[in-house]
TrEMBL record:
NCBIfam families: adh_fam_1. PANTHER family: QUINONE OXIDOREDUCTASE. Pfam families: ADH_N, ADH_zinc_N_2. It comes from the Bacteria. This is Zinc-type alcohol dehydrogenase-like protein. Keywords: Metal-binding, NADP, Oxidoreductase, Zinc. Residues 12-337 form the Enoyl reductase (ER) domain. It comes from Halomonas cibimaris.
Length: 341
């Protein structure tokens, strides 16, 4: 089967950074679905895993690594323990960081982290959603404890880095839960984007944020989600209300002074959507349920895809182009590649 992989961690402008290769078609075992991949999207995790850790290039790998942690496709075969899907089903999912990724014609993935594709979306539109949706949903409704069905209506949520993939679906999930959303964006294009998605207020995270939020007549916010980098930590601590909560998806080596958080009795949560499949947690099935819930909301018109750019076909040249867009930090919404040929 065709696949896009890397054998050495290289800068994205190196033609060898991502390669077109042929691999054996994987066979489903246990609770695996064998999925014929139709579309994939690119996330920051792809670029982090592909980039060299230091200057220049890291040493070659013994085996090709296939990236890709967002996909939509059609179930081709199932393992002997599968109970929720059958061949011919259209699905979407983010996958498992400990296994080969979705940038291949076929992929095996555990049915417990797979959802039925929204019927109203095409494969490219659906592939834009899984990783970011799982991340935002878990961050808001599991880590911060916000009620997804509106019991916390009127509470304020600040999303730092709202124009990217996680923020784009996060705004929609928060508004569907009845929250007032303060989104951050630094460019005219992304400001328009987050407003179109439903943000109530927009502030510039390239400028002092505390002053901008206070200028809105808002002293503190109930919840804060940091969806870009922890360089905004001090502002987040200043703006969170006493006994509020901050959630972050960024791993950081920057200093994170905790005194201000302690005196407010506020909480810090980490979100990593791969934790469930990585550790085979007893509640892995929650990602299946989550994706099915989101599919129903999409089909009912309550949520929309965050797709912004489509490249195709799926090959190394287009994948390098997509990685470059993500690394530039200027993408809004999601970048998707569609079709092998």
């Amino acid at each position: 089967m065709k696949a896009v992989a890397f054998t050495q961690q290289l800068p994205v402008d190196n033609p060898q950074a991502l390669l077109d290769i042929d691999l054996p078609k994987p066979e489903p075992r246990g609770r695996d679905l064998q999925v014929a991949v139709r579309a994939v999207s690119v996330n920051p995790i792809d670029t982090k895993l592909r980039r060299p850790k230091g200057d220049g290039a890291d040493g070659p790998h013994s085996e090709p690594r296939v990236l890709g942690f967002d996909a939509s496709g059609v179930v081709e075969a199932v393992g002997p323990e599968v109970t929720r899907f059958k061949p011919g089903d259209e699905v979407y999912y983010a996958g498992d960081i400990t296994r080969q990724g979705s940038n291949a014609e076929y992929q095996c993935v555990d049915e417990r982290i797979v959802g039925a594709k929204p019927a109203t979306l095409d494969f490219a539109e659906a592939a834009a959603l899984p990783l970011t949706t799982i991340t935002a949903f878990e961050a808001f409704f599991e880590r911060l404890g916000i009620d997804p069905d509106g019991a916390d209506k009127g509470q304020r949520l600040m999303i730092i880095g709202a124009g990217g993939g996680v923020g784009s679906i996060g705004i929609q999930l928060a508004k569907a839960a009845g929250l007032e959303v303060i989104a951050t964006a630094s460019r005219e294009e992304t400001t328009r984007w987050v407003k179109a998605l439903g943000a109530d207020h927009v502030v510039n995270h390239r400028e002092p944020m505390v002053e901008q939020v206070r200028a809105l007549g808002i002293e503190h916010v109930d919840h804060i989600a940091i969806f870009n980098d922890m360089g905004h930590w001090d502002a987040a601590v200043e703006l969170i209300r006493p006994q509020g909560g901050i959630v972050s998806i960024d791993d950081t080596e920057q200093p994170m002074p905790m005194a201000g958080l302690k005196t407010k009795a506020a909480s810090l949560h980490w979100e990593f959507m791969f934790a469930r499949p990585m550790f085979k947690t007893p509640d892995m099935i929650e990602q299946h349920r989550l994706l099915n819930r989101v599919a129903r909301d999409v089909d009912a018109g309550r949520l929309r895809t965050t797709l912004n750019t489509v490249l195709g076909p799926i090959n190394a040249a287009h994948m390098r182009q997509a990685h470059a867009l993500i690394e530039a930090g200027t993408a809004k919404g999601k970048v998707v590649l569609e079709g092998f040929r």
